[in-house]
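Morning run. Coffee first, then this:
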Amino acid sequence: MTEKPRRAQAEPSALARELERLLAGVAGSVDDVVARPHPSPESLHHLHREMRRLRHALAIWQRLLASRDATLVRPLDRRLKRLARLVGRVRDRDVMIDLIEGPSLPRPARRDVMPVARLRARLRDDARTGRELLRVFLRSERDAHLFEGLRESVEFTPRPTAAAHLHEVLNEEEARRDQDVRAAHRRARRRPSSTRLHRLRIQVRRLRHLTEVRARLERRSHTTFPPLVRRLQSRLGRLHDLDIVLGGLDTDLLSTEWARALKRERRRVRAGLRATLRNHRWRAFDLSSPAPDRADRRGGRARS
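And here it is:
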């Protein structure tokens, strides 16, 4: 039997360098968004993603610090979390506009065109207002030295046992997040409501972020999630986008044929997810290797 290659031991200094890299990226993206009167949806998406990755790495770093130092980091992390939520809300509005104006949703019937046009106008006004407020909050936190405080926290000296403890922390985090995914997967299989499916999407994303951080710390190539998991995440994202659109409809659109067509599309996506979850327990979504989709026992292609 071929032995698996041993992972390189992750070092606290490597985690500090990764934090510096992520922090520089977030601070630069904040400067870019603040400087632009109308930051693009892509720039906000990039900022939101980088903020999530920074918070994941920061959570691991806090576990290596002395209690006194970790206490100083927590309020900084809360401020970063609040900013990430604000970016996410504006990002959700961009997603809704993009979906309504793009080709992937059903087209409104002639009698629904005017209400949909009013919705688009309102969303664009909301997006402009949201961007203005977001830029104010980002500038305020930047000027209040949030990122300088985070940089100083990266310079804190880890506990003497941090080198050995980091490996344990990574293993514990990986096991905990894997269990979180399995629990969310079981609940979604039993009753695939939008809330439970969205929770599954979040838990898989958190596990993915951890594997990315760990791969960089252990100086190995990042293991790509198997195609089956990537397809699942894509469909979960599609369902979440439809939930955002339906949840943001104006009252005069709720009883239109267009709204009913959106609901039919959501039911179709949810039915596909239900079939995927029913046919595959989480162990079929093995993340340990980038193997292609497994064929089913009858020799055919894996069901999606």
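The domain at 12-280 is CATH 1.40.20.10 (CHAD domain). Good start to the day.
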